[in-house]
Amino acid sequence: MTSQETVSPVHPVFRDDCFAGRTVFVTGASSGIGRSAAEALSRHGARLVLNGRSEERLRETLGRLSGEGHTVVPGELTDADATAELVKTAARDHGPFHGIFHAAGNFAVRAIKVTRQSHLHQTFDASVFGAYGVGRAAASPKVLADGGSLLLMSSVAALRGNAALAAYSGAKAAVLGLTRVLALELAGRRVRVNAVVASTITTEMHWKTLENADMTHVDANEARHPLGFGAPAQMDDAVMFLLGDASSWITGAEIPVDGGYSAG
To answer: Is the model more confident about 264 or about 204?
Structure first.
């Protein structure tokens, strides 16, 4: 190694204090993946600003966090303009943020022949328009600090077809397109924008969809996951990696966290 060469710093992503002094905004934090990620981030030193529709459930999440200084900002993220304003206000009051994890969204199963405009709105409002609003807000350094990280939630449904998932697949594919564009637009501020491409995670939403499901189809779906269905906590490592310093040269990426589903 010549005298001009330097050694890249090592960032132990799971060091206890790897998010110390950093504020992270997490949407969908009232349950599931968002709640689990918030808990993990707090254990590693982050100060959390939590968003979700239910203030009561957000405060339940708040009570599960480690550390101090966390707060909740309840509100719907289904309109791009309103979402951008909510995130900007949250950043003005509690930021700027060092990371944003947009975990909010919903899951819809409906055959195309019975899918109406109202059903498309239900799916796209939560998964797409909310993400656009978050992205627009993150374009301001007063919201997401230079060198920060924006992480969006997508799904393997964006990459592989499944019957009765036309609206959901379309919405999650839109998130991937948005991720790539934002990565280019925000690169000048060294802001990284990536997407987690998840498969079936056993959240409350998952169990609710099983209430009237044909278990034969459920079992067949699980068999397509070489490592089985995932748990919310199994997403945490990927979320922390992509929000932290160890991913400093990764942007515009679609990271599959899917138990091997996309390998088949």
So the answer is: 264
